[in-house]
Each structure stands twice: as structure tokens, then as C-alpha cells.
Amino acid sequence: MFNYIDIYTILSLSLLFSDLLLSTYYNYKTNQLHKYPIPLIILKINLSFLFLIYSIHKKQLIIGLSAILYFLKTFFTLLYKVNYTINSKQILTYQL
Fold first, then answer.
1. In whole numbers, what is the pLDDT of the chain averaged over residues?
2. Transmembrane stretches, by residue range (predicted)?
3. Rounded distance, CA 62 to CA 51, Å?
4. Number of domains in the chain
5. 3-class secondary structure per residue, 39-88
């Protein structure tokens, strides 16, 4: 019925949720989400795709759902970063 949970499942879930919790805590405490480097965000998006492919290969729904949640969270972080950068450049042009 269900596949057994192997060590890779435990590692991937712990990696996904620990990064999710740490970045959420970082954003809550410092409120500086716009200072995330874009290459790190793109790396996180690629990591979520790897976990999604792994979950499809192993046919495990838990990793797939957490990978989708992780992808959405990082994608919206990237959108926030790009939007903040565009808005700050517009503010700088208005000040000139």
C-alpha cells in the first residue's frame, strides 16, 4: 500500500522543513527578506524540483507535497525580492 520510509525520505523532509522554518524565522525576526541573494533562491528552487522528481520516482506523496510547498514559498520569495528591487530602483529614480 505505502512505500517504506527510507533514510533519503527523512533527510529530504528534514532539509525542506528546516530551511522553511529557518527562513520564515529569519524573515519574522529581521524583516529583511529582500536581502536574500538571488542565486541562493534559484538554488532552492532547483532543490525543490529535485525533491519533486525524487518523490515521483519513489511514489511518496509526503515528499511531493512538501516539495511543492517549498517551491511555492521560494518562488514567492523570489518574486518579493524582484518586486522590492524594482520598487527601490523606482524610488531612487524619483529622488534624482
1. 70
2. 6-26, 38-56, 62-80
3. 11
4. 1
5. HHHHHHHHHHHHHHHHHHHHCCHHHHHHHHHHHHHHHHHHHHHHHHHHHH
Contacts of residues 21-25 at CB distance under 8 Å and 24 or more positions apart, as own/partner, are 23/73, 23/77
The widest CA-to-CA distance across the chain, in whole angstroms, is 65
The verdict on residue 86 lying in a domain is yes
The pTM (predicted TM-score) of the whole model is 0.54
- Does residue 1 fall inside a structural domain? no
Mind listing the pLDDT tens digit for each residue in 21-44?
Answer: 767 676 666 666 656 666 777 777
- Report the CATH number that the domain containing residue 24 is assigned in CATH: 1.20.1280
Number of Cβ atoms within 10 Å of the Cβ of 63: 22
Q: What percent of the chain has pLDDT over 70?
A: 57
The answer on pLDDT for 62 being more than 60 is: yes
